[in-house]
Amino acid sequence: QPYCMLIADEVRQAGRMIRMRTFRGDAEWSGKWSDESEHWTNNLRKLLSYSADADDGSFWMDYDDFCRYFNRVWMVRMADDRWTRYTVRSEWRDATAGGSTAYVSWLHNYQWRLRVPPRSKPARVFITVSVPETPTVVRLGADTDADAERGAGGGGGAATLAYTNAIGLDIFRGYSAEDKKRQRLDLGSRADLVHRTEPQFRRKIVTEVLLQPADEPYLLRPFLATPGRESEFSLIVLSDDKDDDGVPDFEFAFVDDADNWKKSWLVDAWEAATAGGPLSVAGWDIGPQYQLLIKESNTRVFLALELIDADRDGRDTAGIQSVFDAYPLVQIAVCEGKGKNVLLTAADGVKVLFGCRSREPYPDGCVLELPAHALPRSDTPYVVLPYTAERGVLHKFAVSCYANKDVDFYKANPEPCDLCPGECKSCPMVQIMRR
């Protein structure tokens, strides 16, 4: 049962002592320095303003006894009305349940922006992430599954509470200049990860962090460790108002679409007729091709290739991947284009400008950053080629394009319709739209 520690001090004539208080009328301490202990003297009671009231819920005990009978201590901060408090209620659902940064799908998770203005004092912030999960009672050392399922009412070992979701929190440095209001899309260097609370199987995690003033914001990214795990959650950001003036010492906001990258997300698959394999083997040009039109100078682009619905063979069942070899190796290349909706062919040759591959550092895909000066503005679209390291690998995937300026990103088709440049004339939506 829990107790509240009120005072801890070294007392003349008594040594190191601690005053405790019970909750809900629980039993008080009955050992040395309890209410009726023979160690008390009238002078000592007067010194500590303490009476032998057996029903007041408070008691004193010796420090050595405290160490003997208690094994956990939590520090509680009493946040009054002058503290700054932000409360967010959200959920990880569908694509936003991206998991930890061990997977490329982490890019889809929500992020929140926290900025400590320059020339202000550092902000000590307390961040809580919690989920409304009810734990399962599990018996340690249960002889059988049936023993474990009996929980608190069964035998076979001590009972403990088990949670199915592991909660974590990342705090990144944000980008600078015109991208400082946008979400983080790369892991960067060690210095870019300000803090990480490793995933824990608990209902709630609490993080304390001291954030230094900076022109760039910090980005908070709460997550569940496993991609595809869905849950509601709450995010609480708490900090003492240094001036007690009711004005927050830092800025806090959700990274919404208005401030974020301009995103395109295209879902496709390598089927039997399109699984051409790497550019080094004949027949690679049967694979899907996408086009990227850069309309303005200084356009910064991130391209992400992600394996999705990883359940098409026994090696990569969704949600239980434990080794990198469970995923097929995939790569993405950006090449010079030859014209709008003109497909590249092996016969004509290909000039690769940039590329990346999975397992560096993600097992389920890769992210390619193209800095502002990497792709000059051009009336001819660049060609983006996602492919597998081996020919004939069948898998569903998604290609995402994030850009700081307007771009056109679409699947190349040599016979586009007049309504959707990237779609085939056989698309059933054409007839519907014309009607």
From TrEMBL:
Pfam families documented for this protein: Peptidase_C2 (PF00648)
GO BP field: proteolysis
UniProt domain Calpain catalytic: residue ranges: 1-79
An example Gene Ontology molecular-function term: calcium-dependent cysteine-type endopeptidase activity
Top-level lineage group: Eukaryota
Keywords: Hydrolase, Protease, Thiol protease
Family: Belongs to the peptidase C2 family.
Protein's name in the database: Calpain catalytic domain-containing protein
Originating species: Diacronema lutheri (Unicellular marine alga)
